[in-house]
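Researcher: Quick test of sequence recovery. Tokens follow.
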């Protein structure tokens, strides 16, 4: 799993002596010896001076490499000697040598990166859920067969002879920024564009739009084919009514090779290497500038949304260094109004070896009778150890509480306000500020009486997501964890208002909104549960309460970390390593 690069002299020799090329291929198959396959790629690619990405899992390989055409052909010949690659579609294309170092570096074409991974492409928003069986993937259609189906639909529209063919739909399995510069279009066939930021968002879209696919002949397509394999299997796994799901074998690349004038494909095919995009001989442009809406489809300037870091199209006339851009998805979800004081142009990012991506943004919810500044101080060690992968954002809860004292007289001096997400039924909002004497000694079970205030807190969080989002996940501590769990229980109803991919629950308990409405394992949100393993050590939240909360989440996407401490978030090894491992799945 090393990274290497060719020297400048060798790069110049490649450029001068021979034509350059890019090779793409994947193969889903059982790999009996992953280490042996890693050794093959290290030896073959390094000896042939191939640069790019190689991903190996126990279930197959996914490869995108560039180099001399003759070297790529040698690599193909070597791979074919291994029975694992029998029937593999090796997609080799000649092209210019990488001219833009920035683009080449971002695409991973200035070095060789070989990694062992769990998934060849990250399909599920919950990495721990079992993936669909690849053997159930949709039937492959060759470029000619795919074209023929669309041609037939054009010549023979719907049953009424006028409207579109309602028995056939095209489904684009790519990300929104890819579809904005090229897509299949057929006059009588509906094209479904999920408009997703990343491939792992596709299962959720399929779940929410299953009725658009049920009973139809679904023609799926993507860049080279690999994303359709898992996605088509997922659709077919839904059972009756979803059997007729087909995929374009070899993807758009093979289709354009078969139909160089473009056929039913309009625009350009976005590719994940230094070429950026590949068009047909027509060279038609369907993309447009984000700002002025004029025709434009060049991603080489690498302009990105300042909020979510997705690529956006900004033409030469509109592009200004340092400008803040808001993609159409962020704009759709209320991120269009950017405060003048907000400078996101230097938003922190994390390098994964292939490209540079922003850090995870995690919204942090403090516990009962705490506040944002206090929670930030208490989690300073955690923030420091996660600084390379996550940005923690702290907010106060909406319910302001009275100050409580147990001495004869109220303390003097200024105290920071305290807040809560949930309150007891006798909470008196009119007297919520100032000092009051404690009615009794600390009650470790007081959280069981905090059954009010959820709707106000939920409305408040919607505003926070609109004003300060997007957030990748929510981290909650104690009552904050209970609030986060309650939001997870309503995640499907909150789409578009509170969107996030995971939840981290620390010393949590089951909040009142979930007590009677949720069954064990019914919450599907990917989650990490951190709590003490020794009964009695956490004097605020009993171990069983945290364990019961974890039980409401699906076993397939819930991770549990039990520690030997009390009411804290542990940051020592091995606990911090397990926390990082969970978060890395979402980068």
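Model:
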């Amino acid at each position: 799993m090393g990274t290497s690069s060719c020297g400048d002299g060798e790069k110049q020799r490649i450029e001068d002596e021979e034509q350059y090329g890019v090779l793409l291929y994947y193969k889903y198959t059982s790999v009996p010896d992953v280490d042996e396959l890693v050794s093959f790629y290290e030896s073959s690619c390094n000896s042939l001076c191939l640069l790019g990405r190689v991903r190996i899992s126990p279930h197959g390989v996914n490869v995108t490499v560039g180099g001399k055409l003759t070297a790529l052909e040698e690599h193909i010949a070597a791979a074919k000697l291994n029975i694992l690659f029998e029937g593999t579609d090796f997609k080799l294309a000649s092209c210019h040598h990488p001219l833009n170092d920035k683009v080449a570096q971002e695409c991973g074409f200035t070095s060789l990166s070989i990694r062992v991974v769990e998934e060849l492409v990250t399909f599920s928003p919950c990495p721990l859920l079992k993936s669909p069986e690849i053997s159930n993937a949709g039937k492959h259609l060759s470029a000619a067969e795919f074209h023929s189906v669309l041609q037939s639909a054009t010549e023979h529209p719907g049953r009424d002879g006028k409207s579109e063919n309602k028995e056939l739909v095209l489904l684009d399995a790519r990300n929104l920024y890819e579809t904005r510069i090229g897509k299949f279009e057929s006059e009588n066939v509906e094209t479904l564009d999920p408009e997703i930021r990343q491939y792992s968002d596709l299962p959720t879209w399929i779940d929410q739009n299953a009725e658009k696919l049920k009973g139809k002949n679904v023609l799926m397509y993507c860049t080279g084919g690999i994303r359709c394999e898992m996605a088509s299997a997922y659709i077919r796994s839904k059972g009756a009514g979803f059997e007729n799901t087909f995929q374009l074998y070899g993807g758009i690349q093979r289709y354009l090779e078969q139909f160089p004038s473009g056929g039913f494909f309009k625009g350009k095919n976005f590719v994940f290497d230094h070429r950026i995009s590949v068009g047909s001989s027509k060279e038609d442009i369907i993309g447009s500038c984000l700002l002025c809406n004029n025709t434009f489809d060049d991603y080489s300037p690498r302009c990105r949304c300042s909020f979510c870091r997705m690529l956006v199209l900004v033409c030469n006339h509109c592009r200004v260094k340092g400008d803040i851009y808001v993609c159409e998805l962020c704009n759709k979800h209320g991120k269009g109004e950017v405060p003048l004081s907000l400078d996101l142009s230097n938003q922190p990012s994390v390098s994964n070896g292939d490209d540079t991506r922003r850090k995870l943004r995690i919204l942090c919810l403090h516990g009962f009778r705490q506040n944002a500044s206090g929670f930030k101080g208490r989690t300073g060690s955690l923030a420091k150890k996660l600084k390379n992968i996550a940005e923690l954002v702290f907010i106060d809860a909406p319910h302001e509480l009275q100050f409580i004292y147990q001495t004869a007289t109220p303390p003097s001096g200024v105290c920071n306000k305290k807040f809560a997400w949930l309150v007891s039924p006798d909470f008196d909002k009119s007297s919520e500020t100032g000092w009051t004497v404690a009615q009794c000694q600390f009650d470790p079970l007081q959280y069981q009486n905090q059954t009010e205030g959820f709707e106000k807190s939920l409305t408040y969080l919607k505003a926070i997501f609109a004003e300060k989002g997007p957030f990748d996940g929510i981290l909650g501590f104690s009552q904050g964890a209970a609030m986060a769990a309650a939001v997870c229980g309503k995640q499907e109803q909150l789409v578009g208002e509170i969107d996030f991919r995971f939840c981290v629950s620390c010393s949590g308990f089951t909040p009142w909104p979930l007590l009677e409405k949720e069954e064990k394992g019914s919450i599907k949100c990917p989650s990490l549960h951190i709590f003490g393993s020794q009964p009695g050590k956490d004097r605020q939240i009993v171990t069983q309460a945290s364990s019961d909360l974890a039980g409401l989440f699906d076993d397939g996407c819930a991770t549990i970390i039990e520690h030997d401490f009390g009411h804290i978030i542990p940051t020592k090894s091995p606990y911090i390593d397990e926390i990082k491992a969970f978060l890395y799945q979402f980068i």
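The radius of gyration is 27 Å.
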